[in-house]
Amino acid sequence: MGVAKVGHTGTLDPFATGVLLCCLNQATRIARFFLHGTKRYTALLRLGIATDTQDGTGQVIARHAVSDFSEECLMSVFRRFEGCQMQRPPVYAALKHEGTPLYKLARRGTPVQKPARQVTLALRIVETALPDIRFEVCCSAGTYVRALCADIGEALGCGGHLAELRRTGCGGFTLDAAISLEALKRTAPEDVRSEVVPMADALPDMPLIRADGAMVQHLMHGKPLPAEWIQRDIDANEPVGGGYFKVVDEQGRLRAVLQAADEGAKYNYCCVFN
User: Fold this and answer.
1) What is the pLDDT of residues 80-106, one digit of tens each?
2) In a shared domain, residues 1 and 111
3) What pTM did the predictor assign?
4) CA dihedral defined by 50, 55, 60, 63, rounded to 10 degrees?
5) What is the Cα–Cα distance from 237 to 252, expressed in whole angstroms?
6) Other CB atoms within 10 Å distance of the CB of residue 222
7) Which CATH number belongs to the domain containing residue 221 in this structure?
8) Which residues on adjacent β-strands are paired with residue 17?
């Protein structure tokens, strides 16, 4: 395919599986539009065992008996963690402190606890077979499901850790649209392109502007765009999604992403594609 550059839009823990968006070549320039979106997971919380990493890869730091919690009790505790919450990132995380990843500091015996930050959560218990609870979570970017599991275990009084994690949705993409690494390796090079989503299709929620030849020429030379060209397709007074617009040519190819400026009917170039 002639891939010269690849970038992902959000890490997964090494033991986790599921959706990981990878941007190829020029698509790396639109990666930022996926970084702050909602993510969905299926997780397995194992009660009674707390670990230093808050998942199954760490060292056990506490063990407690697990009571025969009722469904009502579990649902009541889970509801405490729904909506806007302040969450403390794990000390074993890729976040950096003075340029060094937290997990490296923790492994050296000098863990650093970052301040709590706001996250938004929606939870649903799928199956209970104590000490295990399988649940679904829809969360804002920056949420740590490991930390959530540890917090729920603490709230139940028996501790707990994240035993399994599968990302089921990210940036509008789901498992149905994903291809496994194993399947990708078996795909002939000439057939790989059919697995790649065109850039214009990768931003389905971004308002669309259709560009004719004259507009494409303006884009290629970075010329100011007349407001009426934009208003042909979109009410420029009501930008959607942070004021971003995608510009697609007559062949359906993404040619630019624009953003409505604060002053008047003006538009700033975010990125232009050949």
Assistant:
1) 999 999 999 999 988 889 999 888 999
2) yes
3) 0.85
4) 30
5) 25
6) 10
7) 2.30.130.10
8) 166
